[in-house]
Design a protein that fits this description.
Strand 13 and strand 14 form a beta hairpin. The protein is built from 8 helices and 14 strands. Helix 2 runs parallel beside helix 3. By secondary structure, the protein is α+β, with helices and mostly antiparallel strands. It has a 7-stranded mixed sheet, sandwiched between helices.
């Protein structure tokens, strides 16, 4: 079984949960990372986005990501596919079409060349299929026990699509909340092989690039207010970040949430909430209500968006909160996850 990475209060050391994408991650950034970088930061005080425009040219967008998934291979992908798709998607969530990637490898001494070659071939194939060249990189080797096989760090650069400027701070009252695909597949797929839980054949990771889905939404222009891919911390973390940064109240409908039956069964078995389980191939979009039906049609026209659905709205209520309308008509507060129920997912 997994070990719980939640902290004890008063701990003065970094915990596994600090890398989870929830409240502990925010505390790590606010208390340690951002104050140290503030003198050199291009911009401070705004929302923390998946990618940022380059100083002097806001049509170019840049992102950096690190991948430490355990195990390196999982149903539906591996750390190589995840590195490309995750970076492409971070650019896409800022309305940018990816132009190029760099890749840095930290390889642990003793890693089989066969496994390394398979991962690199997967990375190259995924980049080629996404139409994004790998233009530079670096390779380091560390001692046994210092890298858990392989860590990958990527940087991506993209060009913003004309008319699109989505941000976590731009959701508006009345917005429709759309989700491009089912929830929870990636996190449960990784966990299934990590702990030999026996349901690996029923669940595969949803890892895929989403930039073509964002391309399809480009004609809607300024009606697309916010895009976010719910990776670490799942949909719960993404919606809470958007509600906080946009100062809005988000209401979602339990009956509309697309949780596949195998994922729901695995979460029930393990005591997990599908809303907090990581995804790597779907996005949440906040769209002006008059454009919601058109946006759904554009997404459903592509394979990666064929299951797109409307899951909620921005409604009246206390700003910064996310609530779930349950099957029996009650409301349940969806809080920001504290730590990660499933660490080392991406």
């Amino acid at each position: 079984m997994t070990t719980c990475p939640l902290p004890s209060t008063g701990d003065d050391r970094v915990l596994l949960g600090h890398g989870a994408g929830g409240r502990l991650s925010a505390e790590l950034l606010e208390a340690h990372v951002l104050p140290a970088l503030a003198p050199a930061a291009a911009a401070t005080g705004g929302p923390l986005e998946d990618a940022a425009p380059l100083p002097g040219d806001d049509t170019l967008v840049m992102t950096t990501d690190a991948f430490v998934v355990s195990p390196l291979f999982f149903p539906g992908g591996d750390i190589g596919t995840l590195a490309v798709n995750g970076t492409v998607n971070d650019l896409a969530m800022r309305g940018a079409r990816p132009l190029a990637l760099t890749v840095a490898l930290i390889i642990e001494e003793g890693l089989d060349f066969a496994r390394l070659d398979t991962i690199l071939a997967s990375l190259g194939k995924t980049a080629a299929e996404a139409g994004v060249p790998v233009v530079a990189g670096d390779t380091k080797v560390v001692g046994r026990g210092q890298a858990d096989g392989l860590f990958i760090t990527t940087t991506g650069i993209g060009r913003r699509l004309p008319g699109l400027n989505p941000s976590a701070a731009r959701a508006r009252p009345g917005d429709a909340v759309l989700l491009s695909g089912p929830l929870g597949a990636h996190g449960t797929a990784v966990l299934s092989v990590r702990d030999n839980l026996g349901f690996a054949s029923d669940i595969t990771s949803d890892t895929r690039p989403l930039h073509r889905l964002v391309d399809a939404l480009a004609p809607l222009g300024a009606h697309v207010h916010t895009l976010r891919d719910p990776t670490r911390g799942g949909l719960a973390a993404s919606l809470n970040e958007i509600a906080r940064d946009s100062r809005v109240h988000v209401s979602i409908d339990e009956t509309a949430l697309p949780v596949p039956e195998p994922v729901a069964g695995a979460c029930d078995l393990l005591g997990l909430d599908p809303l907090t389980v990581a995804n790597e191939g779907c996005m949440v979009a906040f769209v002006a209500p008059e454009s919601a039906d058109e946006a759904l049609g554009l997404m459903r026209a592509l394979p990666e968006g064929r299951h797109a659905t409307r899951i909620g709205d921005v409604t009246d209520g206390p700003a910064g909160r996310v609530v779930l309308r349950t099957l029996i008509g009650a409301q349940r507060l969806i809080d920001m996850p504290l730590g990660e129920q499933l660490p080392r997912i991406c």
